[in-house]
Design goal:
about 475 residues; alpha+beta; 12 helices; 19 strands; binds adenosine-5'-triphosphate; binds manganese (II) ion
Length: about 475
């Protein structure tokens, strides 16, 4: 008797084995001939395995004939080649033990299909559905691929803090972290007295690990962070979460072109790994969720990303004749509709946009020789829009000081960041990939709330 997963048991070469399988019933169908077919799932693959349970089993009438979706069981039996189509094997049960019942009157996952909105209210049950099982496996595959890529490239994994006192970047609104009694906040005349707070000053949840990664890159060469980040921006869109995971490589002695090359190879590696390691899940997404995911990923792996300056992008958009809600003009940030026009309609492939106006980008991006633009890069992909944002960092102390004055930032707050430019400064670059945007793109899922186990968005953090 061999304990197996459903994924293993579904392999044709497993036929003939005596196995023990453990999982949850998806469906039961009784045949007139006096036996039942059970579909068993254990989360190891998107496909289930069929169990044939004969009436001769001792608990056939008392238990097996009452099994329904969600019941948990241990099945022992012989794996045989299956005559049915769509499955290589099936189990002829010798014994079925029931661990837990799931009352069909009240168990929510009875129907075959539920809307994703409805399933969001059942974060504790949705991993049991085909779609959310497949998402969990693909998300895991992407994370493994991310670590493998950077480890093989000689990067060090460093951990940026989640609680931070630096309101750096202005990347988004921050969540405050405090132990002050909100009903009785200590005050000095008109403002809150943060010297009585836990950290002796205002503290926040991080919006990015970039600045900390720069510290390590400027000592160790090539590093990456990969952890949760938080943004309190009140954007109720299908591409924004209040808590999301970000991968942020940071490399000393990398210029913008090196940064782009790395990001392109990185994304292609992830897509290749998912296609190779999750073929059944990807077939499922292609058939059930978005009929272009396979062809899009295969197309991307085999072609080069477009590289385009912001200025050229504005010219294309202005001359496109397309109707946009937000007008296009040099000096304004591109909106999602503009980004999607470029990558979906105009080029039909990923686009790396670079050299944005200095006025719309943070102080740490390196100023180009033209004085008007900075070495920023955003990578845009169809359906999702921006998936990566990055830049070459300003390494010149005087230029950075000028940029901080321009953006009304206090240099004292960034003394340690400026020290990196004061002592042994080097050209360096990095970028951030939003993990959930990557999962969204790969799976074709329309809403980012469905590609993270427990989504946090304005007005909702139920589980
Ligand atoms: P956007 O313009 O889409 O709001 P951003 O420019 O604010 O994104 P960056 O600060 O450049 O984003 O962050 C790097 C990456 O993190 C983005 O390219 C995106 O993949 C991801 N990201 C940013 N904000 C969110 C969010 N609220 N939810 C999920 N992913 C996000
Ligand atoms: Mn960005």
């Amino acid at each position: 008797m061999q304990k197996m997963t459903v994924a293993q048991a579904r392999q044709p070469q497993s036929a003939g084995e005596h196995v023990r399988l453990q999982g949850w019933i998806r469906t039961r169908r009784d045949s007139k001939g006096g036996f039942s077919f059970l579909e068993l799932s254990d989360g190891s693959s998107v496909g289930n395995i069929q169990i044939v349970a004969e009436a001769a089993l001792p608990n056939y009438e008392s238990e097996i004939k009452h099994l329904s979706a969600g019941c948990s069981v241990t099945v022992e039996g012989e794996l045989k080649a299956s005559p049915a189509k769509g499955q290589a094997t099936e189990v002829h049960a010798k014994a079925i033990a029931v661990h837990g019942w799931a009352d069909p009157e009240t168990y929510a996952l009875q129907k075959k299909r539920h809307s994703f909105e409805f399933l969001r209210t059942l974060a504790h049950l949705r991993p049991r559905t085909n779609t959310f099982g497949a998402i969990a496996r693909v998300r895991n595959c992407i994370c493994r691929s991310i670590h493998n890529f950077f480890q093989e490239e000689g990067f060090l994994y460093v951990h940026a803090p989640i609680i931070t006192a630096s309101d750096c970047e202005g990347a988004g609104e921050m969540f405050k972290v405090t132990t002050l009694d909100l009903a009785n906040v200590p005050k000095t005349s008109s403002t809150v007295d943060f010297t009585q707070d836990f950290f002796d000053r205002p503290a926040f949840l991080t919006v990015s690990g970039q600045l900390e990664a720069e510290i390590f890159a400027c000592a160790l060469g090539k590093v990456y962070t990969f952890g949760p980040t938080f943004r309190a921006e009140n954007s109720n869109t299908s591409r924004h979460l209040a808590e999301f995971w970000m991968v942020e490589p940071e490399m000393a002695f990398f210029e913008l072109a090196d940064n782009m090359d790395l990001a392109e190879r990185f994304l292609k590696r992830i897509f290749r790994d998912v296609l190779a390691q999750c073929p059944d899940d990807m077939q499922f997404f292609n058939a059930q969720i978005e009929p272009t995911v396979l062809s899009t990923l295969e197309g991307i792996i085999g072609s080069d990303f477009v590289r385009l300056s912001y200025t050229e992008a504005v010219e294309i958009l202005a001359g496109s004749g397309a109707k946009f809600e937000f007008p296009v003009a040099w000096g304004h940030d591109l909106q999602a509709e503009h980004e999607r026009y470029l990558t979906e309609q105009h080029f039909s492939r990923p686009v790396i946009l670079c050299d944005y106006p200095r006025s719309i980008k943070p102080f740490y991006m390196r100023v180009n020789d033209d004085g008007r633009t900075v070495r920023a890069m955003d990578i845009l992909v169809p359906r999702v829009g921006e998936i990566i944002g990055g830049s070459q960092r300003e390494e010149r102390l005087d230029v950075m000081a000028e940029r901080m004055r321009e953006q009304k930032l206090a240099p004292e707050a960034y003394w340690w960041y400026l020290d990196l430019r004061r002592y042994g400064t080097v050209p360096h670059s990095g970028f951030g990939l939003g993990l959930e945007r990557a999962v969204q793109f790969v799976t074709g899922m329309a809403n980012i709330r469905d590609v993270i186990p427990f989504p946090r968005v304005p007005g909702s953090a139920d589980f």
